[in-house]
Amino acid sequence: MQKIVLQGIAYDDKSSYLRGTAKAPPVIRESYRSISANYYAENGMEILPEIFEDVGDITPNQYFDIEDFTKSNLNKKFRLITLGGDHSITYPVFRAFQNQKGPVDILHIDAHADLYNEFGGDPYSHACPFARIMEEGLASRLVQVGIRTMTRHQQEQADRFSSEVIPSAGFSTAALPEFKNPLYLSLDMDALDPAYAPGISHYEPGGLTSRQVIDIIQHINMPLLGADIVEYNPTRDINQMTGMLCAKFLKEISAKMLEFA
Ligand code: MN
Ligand code: MN
Question: pTM, whole model, 2 decimals?
Answer without folding.
Answer: 0.98
